[in-house]
Design a protein that fits this description.
It is a single chain. By secondary structure, this protein is mainly alpha-helical. Helices cover 60% and strands 7% of the residues. The protein has 5 helices and 2 strands, in the order βαααβαα. α1 packs across α4. The longest helix has 23 residues. The chain is globular and about 50 Å long. The C terminus is likely disordered.
């Protein structure tokens, strides 16, 4: 897996980390709802989303995203507003999860405050434009 060469500022990294934390909470809610039961109808969707139908493996995949982002935030050595290249090593499933969760964060913020300052929405949009749109199935070849 090649590292993604993102050019971000500290606030964007924190937004990504928040999206990853929300993904972990969502994953727990899915488990509670039976989405990872061995005979559940969600198995195929879990395979497409996480590359596994095992809850612990899916949780590890999402936690790895959060941990890598946390380490990048902690290692930030510029002013928070300064953009700088940051290499993040995500596999295609992690990229897909990050895209989906960033879109969800952006939509929830727009729904909550439609007339709010657009700067955070723009930061999220900039992130989405940098993330590749490759689907996990393309890596299977």
């Amino acid at each position: 897996m090649d590292a993604l060469p993102l050019v971000v500022n500290q606030q964007q990294l924190k937004l990504m980390q928040q999206a990853a934390s929300q993904a972990i909470a969502d994953l727990e809610n899915q488990k509670q709802a039976g989405a990872f039961d061995s005979n559940g109808s969600q198995q195929e969707e879990n395979l497409l989303t996480y590359g596994t139908d095992d809850y612990e493996s899916a949780r590890q995949l999402v936690q790895t995203i959060e941990q890598e982002l946390q380490s990048k935030v902690q290692a930030w050595d510029k002013t928070p507003e300064t953009n700088q290249p940051v290499e993040i090593s995500f596999n295609s499933y992690q990229i897909g999860l990050m895209r989906a969760n960033l879109k969800r964060v952006m939509q929830s913020r727009e729904d909550a405050q439609p007339s709010a300052d657009q700067s955070e929405t723009q930061l999220l949009q900039d992130l989405l434009e940098q993330l590749p749109e490759d689907s996990p199935q393309e890596d299977a070849d």
